[in-house]
Hints:
The complex is a heterodimer. Chain A is of the alpha/beta class. Chain A has 20 helices and 20 strands.
Amino acid sequence: MTDQTNQDRVFEVDDIHVTFDTPDGKVEAVRGVSLHVDRGETVAVVGESGSGKSQIMMAAMGLLASNGRAVGAVRYRGQNILNLPPGQLNKLRGAKITMIFQEPMTSLDPLYTIEDQLSEPLRVHGGLTRAQASARVLELLRLVRIPDPERRMKSYPYEMSGGQRQRVMIAMALANDPDLLIADEPTTALDVTIQAEILRLLAELQRKLGMSILFITHDLGIVEAFADRVYVMRQGRLEEDGPTARIFHAPATDYTRMLLAAEPEGEKPPVPDSAPVLLQGQDVEITFGKPGGFLSKSNLFKAVKGVDLTLREKQTIGVVGESGSGKSTLGRGLLQLLPAAGRVIYLGRDINGLTRQAMKQHRDGLQMVFQDPYGSLSPRMTVSEIVTEGLLVHEPGLTRKERAARAAQALEDVGLSGAMRNRFPHEFSGGQRQRIAIARAVVLRPRVIVLDEPTSALDRSVQKQVIDLLRGLQEEHALSYIFISHDLAVVRAMSDYVMVMKEGKIVEEGPTAQIFDAPQQEYTHSLMRAAFDLKSLLDAG
Amino acid sequence: MTDTAFTDAAVGGRSLWATAMMRLRRNRAAMASIFVLALLGVLAIFGPPLAPHSYSQVYPEFVKVRPSLAPYPQAEQVIPAAERALSRARVEMGEIVVENGTVHIPISSAREIDPRLARYLERSDIFSGAQVAELSADGKTATVTAEVQQLYFLMGTDANGRDLLARILISLRISLMIGALATAVALVIGVAYGATAGFLGGRIDNLMMRFVDILYSLPFVFFVILLVVFFGRNLVLMFLAVGAVEWLDMARIVRGQTLSLRRREFVQAAEALGVSSGAIIRRHIVPNTLGTVIIYMTLLIPKVILLESFLSFLGLGVQEPLTSLGVLISEGAKNMRNAPFMLFFPAVTMTILLFALNFLGDGLRDALDPKDR
């Protein structure tokens, strides 16, 4: 792409500004960004959440929220398409410029079959007959490699997995031979192995069809493996841009360097076998659904099948697996938040099946931190109320003042100022909220904390801070963690023992170094490759 | 623990409620509605004692008089009224003169005039301070003087000669009271019941909601008629009856909300802390359903007021001389042909009240919109 003549310039954004009118005043989401995409090129726009990277594309496609306004120019082959009336924009939108979104679960209408959804735009825009459209749908489904496409055409979205739905979305985007495919975090909601497959498919389709791809993501791993050129965005401005190799090997700005260095690093030495055992699960099984009754059919689903686990003092066990592998369910079962079969031994006592009342005395020792920092804090309580709630239960003798002191202490422990204690959760960023959630757990001085994807909803740089915080707290308070995550890089940095789960069973377990460096099982191997060696996987395809 | 964190003044936060209030304040229609509602509330509380007439006072001389800014009686009414009043005294009347708000009636009789005949005039709503003056020596001729009353009926009077303004003020009080109290009853029962059922889930939820379904299937009017037959017509009973029916919707709404909140991580986090079910419902579930509940409440109040009107229309509502907007409208409807104002004023009042409540409900829904969380 050295020759950048005007015919080659497919898409160009020129000094675009996007502002939103909110009840709290004007918010400038994008402040003067210019970028361009040439024919056949893959360009990535990276940035942390809130950097405005998605809003540029929304503005270009006329999809801004009703309170948003865009100023500047967006050119498709030299023609300005910004703020065009929908009628004219629709000639390009969905035909020559297409988009795929993050959420494959919600982008398809659940009431129509795959064939209906794919063929409708072909019949309406392309003027094809029903039979022609049907044939084209089949062709498209083959193109995106959906297995058994003849049968899949007749299925409804709910019958397909997330990865397959994303393939359908890609097929939809390809239906009218686009020049430019805008992919807005298309793999963020998918498991790593599925993500690798989708990326591979995209790379392959690009080679075959010669379109350009504008890829919006926060994941630098994907960018390095996938893009030709990179734009780095921060707070609505362009931080720097350049060829991928240059950005990754010689970043020009501190921010890019910080992003690149934000990969979690470090490792945790294993604990000695002599360390006391805190929590032990023996043959833990968790079943959902209802057993068959007089009239109803049995509807049971075993989410966790016979898992054994031994957690020692100061140990961190990483539980990895893809979505639906039962890893979160296992964590909840161990803490008696879900009914489980088998034995769960905490400090030498079997706590499995205890009543709420009997379980209460153990709760302060067994805490949990949840994945979604936006959902795990009650939105109508102040931070101080949230953090001290557990103290009301477990140390009812404390005075109000003592409680406030403990809350302030816990907040300082997690790196927040005690002066923040009267604020409400929505006034904090995602990383700060996760700190509050951690403060809520540590204020009770627990022995064991189950961390259920505590860093998945956070930006990489924030992730790193939270990991450092968790490590520090572990040292300081002699905590033991069960660290549940699908993010292998984080698990490698945090844990000294790893269990790999698949379909409710442990397929492999062992010390971290052994699992990561010399995986024995094929499944573990494919996970590692998708997570750490995306480039080779894409090239292979 | 250092004391520094304590000496630092804790930074105050802006709660979601405060944000919602701020947003509401920008909504002009909603703010106007709040103002109108406050005005109506003040009128309902302080209006009846301050009104020029008592809501129960009957003026037989002024049945269904038209609304007017001028005082009653009007000039042409005075002389016929005086003649009518004194005709019972069986005396001869001379020419009646009205001047400066006083009426002078020369009378003569074959017998001696009894000064007590002034009472005939007093009995009329029009005159006060009647006395027999200038009694002649033989006691057979005299002049009766009386002051002519100045009565204002800004909204006219009803079919019994009661001031409509006073009636509307008292009916506003009753209607708002029924609206607020029945809604409060529905709110308390509905929220507690719905949150409990939704949170506990499983078989208990099933049982509780089937009970609600059974109550739903009882015909409401039949239920109220039964209550009235057993206990007589009673205002408190009305509150209970209406509230006891309306909580069913509230319980279903709150249960639905609770079911979705139940799956939220902050509720699970509270469970992991060992917080008891009661405290979780109180601290986590109920405050988070309140947004929806408040919106539903502003829509429930008009519904209850309308329901009460309907019952009053059927004759099952409040008892005379108390009245409610529904009763007034029903009476107005009967007299629509000869006294349209009797329908107009109560209907306008009701409409303003319902409009204000609905606009406020709408504004609150926008202000509490959870999308902005």
